[in-house]
Each structure stands twice: as structure tokens, then as C-alpha cells.
Design brief:
heterodimer, A: about 350 residues, alpha+beta, Immunoglobulin-like, 3 domains, ten-stranded mixed sheet, two-stranded antiparallel sheet, about 30% helix, B: about 140 residues, elongated
Chain lengths: ~350, ~140
């Protein structure tokens, strides 16, 4: 092989850097000689896909060196395999670039004479992508235009859930938490109102109440929030009889176009019982899980430290009992000793 | 067949990505390392509990140390919160926990092998609220 510099019948130096190939002619000569596309591809130094494309005039413009090599392998003069019209067509440079990319990136071992199937798939693939892209652009533009003139009003979702213990002893402080969820999150002013029908003294709000009266507490919260927790401390009246039930009601009100008001969901009643509010299963023992639940609820809440300390004291004591005389909880085993030799 | 091969070859990165995504999505929630790990070390008559806490850290942890029969606690740093004489154990209620390392030391009334001690950390998993119990290595 002489790199095509001395191909017979034409001065290779007169050829332009790229030439237009007569693919049909190449195919005829190759088939007449009984050569496979793979053989020619290996000899020229390109892939069999490239040879296939050349023969089908997919890329009629090829590099001069490749054309000279091809002519040499086919044993013909270069002029025999070139197209007659020498002038370059539109898109010529792009085709050459594509040819180079294809030649470099492929192994060239998979195609054979039956490469026409590949050609068809390649022919079909680009228009398919083209049409898919066109459809996507049109649909996206239509959607954008629709949204521009018909903006979607994201539906406002407000959920408020009250955490209220099932029970508490008269005079003992218990926490009430209101978890407020608002979607979508946006700058808002929200009014939270909660209270009981009777028998419960509301003591302290975290954050501090905006307003309060005998029956209800109110917070006005402003800001951009999706979730916020409001906590207050309360106590069943000391003179309340056991099993007395107090019922809570509350609402969340906010203005989004028009005023919207939703009730606070969750537990809404508390029963006076001789058990700590954190003793969920009323077995007179604050279990590990119950103390962890209490801390999960109130940990880090300023103003609730004493409530937690009282529950912690009952957890440490192991078992507790309600002292009706002092209206307080007492350790049930005051003599229990730790394994400490203090 | 050739078309299928071509599709498989060209779409291999996409297929790999989809398989990875599927595996990630099918992993059970909370799968992975525990938020709390620890070791018990013994030197002379002092037991040391070395606790590693990783994010997202639980707010509160209950640490329990069980001592062998006849072993008593002279002092602990920090002081234990609760005694469990029935099981010869002591508990710490660790509050306002944040990611990092915690060291607890306990001086005992006699030398004891680390293997004769056992300790657990109990906490609520912050990602799902489930109660978790982790045994400290010794």
C-alpha cells in the first residue's frame, strides 16, 4: 500500500482534500471482485459501516486519502469511483466531519455484506429523533403558553393536628402541641385558636400567646413556613373529680384570597386520672420508650424543662403512685438502692 | 437480534442508571448504619463507654450498663440518672444529643473483664420514630 499517493491515471495532488464518491460504482466493482465490505473497510482503515454508507451515498464526500486507498484496493483508477460533478454540495463540510467521527469511534468488526439493514436503521434514526424533538418542543411551547395565560392555582392544604395526652392528674401540668402544616409554603399570617370547654387551666404558651381569655388561647403567626409547632402547658383543675373529661376545640384561620378556617384535628379530650400524662399505658411506670417520647415532644422547648424533669424523676423512680393528699406523684419504691456503694 | 444488540449496547448506561435507581428505591427505609454505636473498654477498675453518634442524631438516648454480680459502682462521670438494682444496671438519660463522640467513665469497686459487662443504647430513630436498641461492643 502506498497511501494512495501514486494511484494510476490521475495526479492525486490535483484532487481536492475531499472528493465526491460514486457509491453505486464502488459497490458494483467491489461485488464484481467478490470482496466484502469488511475486507475493504479493513484495507482502507475505516469501519464496514462507513463503507456501507459510502456505497449508499449516505456520505458522498470523503477524504482524498481514503478515496485513493479505495481505488487502489478495487484496482481501478480514482476517476472511476468519483462522481462526475466535482462541485461541492451544501452540507459538504458537515458530512466530512461526520465521516471522520464515524471512522474513529467504531471498531468496524460487526458489519458485513448484509449491512444494508444497519443503513436503514441509521437512515430512520435521525428523522425519528428529529421528529421526536420537534414534537417535544411544540408540546413544551404549548404547555408554557397555556401556563402563562392560565397559571395553576396550587391548591392550599392546611392541616393542624393536636397532640393532647389521653389523661393527666388534677393539678399536674401537661403539654399540648399543635402541629401546623401549610402547603404550599409561602409568606402568610395565621391565627391559631385553641382551648377547652371547662376545667382546664391554660398556663403558658411556647411561643408566647398573642392573646388569651378564660376559654381559649390565640397565636398570630407570621412568616413563610410549611410546618410549625405550637406548644402550651395546661393543668386540669386541682379540684376536678377523677374521670372528669375536658374537651378541646381549636381552629386555624388564614387569608389566601378569602379567609379559610379549618378545625384542629387529633385528640381533643383529656380525662382526669391518677397517672402521669407521659405514662401512656397507665401502668404507673414511665418506661424507656415513654420517657423518650416525652423528650421527643418537649426537648429544646424553652419553658418546658420542669415538666420534663418531673417525668424524668418518675422514670428514675421506676414505679410511682398518686398521692391524693399532696396532689402529687410519689416514688412507689423509695427504698430501692442502685448498685452503687455510696 | 442485531437491533436488540444495538439497543442493549447504546442504552447500557441508561439501563445501569435505572437499575441503580431501582435498587436505591427498593432499599428499606432506615437501612444503613445505626445512628449510635459504641464500645466498652476496661482499664483497671474503670469502665469506659465510648459512644459514636452520627447524623441524623436522636434527640435523647438511654444508655444502660449491666454489671456482673457483686460489682458495684463507686462513681460515674457523668453521674448516672437511674439505677436498676433488679438487673444490677445503671442508666444514663442523655438529652440534647448531637452528632459526635461521647465518653462515659465508671469507676467500679473491683477489676472486671470488659467481656463481663454489657451495655445498650436505646433511642428513637429520628427518620421513622421506631425504637432502636444497639449493643455496645466489648
Amino acid at each position: 500500500m502506498n497511501n494512495g499517493e501514486d494511484a494510476p491515471g490521475i495526479d492525486s495532488r490535483q484532487l481536492p482534500a475531499t472528493v465526491n464518491l460514486n457509491g453505486q460504482k464502488v459497490r458494483e466493482i467491489r461485488e464484481a471482485m467478490g470482496l466484502t465490505q469488511l475486507y475493504v473497510a479493513v484495507a482502507v482503515g475505516v469501519t464496514s459501516d462507513t463503507i456501507s454508507r459510502w456505497e449508499n451515498r449516505r456520505y458522498p464526500s470523503i477524504k482524498r486519502e481514503n478515496a485513493l486507498k479505495l481505488a487502489e484496493i478495487l484496482g481501478v483508477d480514482i476517476s472511476e469511483i468519483l462522481e462526475q460533478a466535482p462541485d461541492k454540495k451544501e452540507g459538504h463540510e458537515n458530512n466530512v466531519q461526520e465521516e471522520q467521527a464515524c471512522s474513529c469511534g467504531e471498531t468496524g468488526a460487526k458489519a458485513s455484506d448484509g449491512g444494508s439493514k444497519d443503513i436503514r436503521s441509521h437512515r430512520n434514526r435521525i428523522p425519528m429523533f428529529f421528529w421526536a424533538a420537534c414534537i417535544f418542543i411544540v408540546v413544551a411551547a404549548a404547555a408554557a403558553a397555556y401556563l402563562r395565560f392560565h397559571p395553576v392555582q396550587a391548591s392550599l392544604e392546611i392541616t393542624a393536628r393536636r397532640y393532647l395526652p389521653e389523661h393527666s392528674a388534677p393539678g399536674q401540668i401537661f403539654p399540648v402541641a399543635i402541629d401546623l402544616f401549610i402547603r404550599p409554603s409561602a409568606q402568610r399570617t395565621v391565627l391559631i385558636t385553641d382551648g377547652d370547654d371547662m376545667g382546664v387551666n391554660i398556663l403558658k404558651g411556647m411561643p408566647a400567646f398573642t392573646n388569651r381569655d378564660d376559654l381559649a388561647v390565640k397565636w398570630i403567626a407570621q412568616g413563610k413556613f410549611g410546618y410549625k409547632r405550637f406548644i402550651y402547658l395546661a393543668a386540669i383543675a386541682q379540684n376536678a373529680s377523677m374521670n372528669q373529661i375536658s374537651t378541646f376545640t381549636g381552629t386555624i384561620t388564614l387569608k389566601a384570597g378569602k379567609a379559610t378556617s379549618v378545625p384542629i384535628e387529633g385528640n381533643n379530650r383529656i380525662i382526669a386520672m391518677p397517672f402521669c400524662w407521659a405514662d401512656l399505658n397507665v401502668d404507673s411506670i414511665i418506661s424507656d420508650e415513654e420517657i423518650l417520647d416525652a423528650y421527643d415532644l418537649l426537648s429544646g422547648v424553652k419553658g418546658a424543662e420542669n415538666v420534663l424533669k418531673e417525668v424524668e424523676a418518675l422514670w428514675s423512680a421506676g414505679r410511682y403512685k398518686w398521692d391524693q393528699q399532696t396532689h402529687s406523684f410519689q416514688p412507689d419504691h423509695p427504698d430501692s438502692q442502685p448498685p452503687a456503694s455510696k | 437480534m442485531e437491533m436488540a444488540n444495538t439497543i442493549l449496547t447504546e442504552a447500557r448506561p441508561v439501563l445501569c442508571l435505572m437499575i441503580c435507581l431501582a435498587v436505591f428505591c427498593l432499599l428499606p427505609e432506615g437501612a444503613g448504619a445505626a445512628q449510635v454505636n459504641g464500645k466498652i473498654k476496661m482499664s483497671r477498675n474503670t469502665a469506659r463507654l465510648l459512644i459514636d453518634i452520627v447524623a441524623p442524631a436522636p434527640k435523647t438516648i438511654i444508655l444502660t450498663l449491666h454489671l456482673p454480680e457483686g460489682t458495684k459502682v463507686r462513681s460515674c462521670k457523668p453521674a448516672f440518672t437511674k439505677a436498676d438494682p433488679k438487673n444490677n444496671g445503671i442508666n444514663w438519660l442523655l438529652t440534647d444529643v448531637s452528632p459526635g463522640k461521647l465518653k462515659i467513665s465508671c469507676k467500679l469497686n473491683r477489676r472486671t473483664k470488659a467481656s463481663s459487662l454489657s451495655a445498650t443504647a436505646r433511642y428513637k430513630n429520628p427518620s421513622n420514630g421506631n425504637m432502636e436498641e444497639v449493643y455496645l461492643e466489648n
